[in-house]
Amino acid sequence: GKLEFGTEVVTSADGTISALLGASPGASTSVPIMIQLIERCFKDKVQTPDWQAKLKQLIPSYGQSLSNNEELADATRKRTSEVLGLV
Question: How many domains does the chain have?
Fold first, then answer.
């Protein structure tokens, strides 16, 4: 056996079942892990305009890199702070 740390999403070949293995994810990793799970289990649906629109409504930065776009990162932080009532 091999000891590993962290979390991993494991999905069946046909995408009908997934499992999150490892440590319980914290707030900083839970959303990316769930997005990964959705993209694996609903490969075809995630590509449709309806699903893309809904994902972008829920996660405005979906599909974009915050680390490569300072303006988007700032807007995302501002929106998150407002939604959480931090400002």
Answer: 2
For the chain, counts of helices (H) and of strands (E): 4, 2
Distance CA 38, CA 70 (A): 27
Give the integer Cα–Cα distance in Å for 29 and 20. 12
pLDDT digit string (tens) for 7-49? 788 889 888 888 888 777 677 778 888 898 899 889 899 999 9
Are 29 and 54 found together in one domain? no
How many residues make up the chain in this entry?
87
- DSSP class per residue in 11-27: E-TTSS-EEEEESPP-H
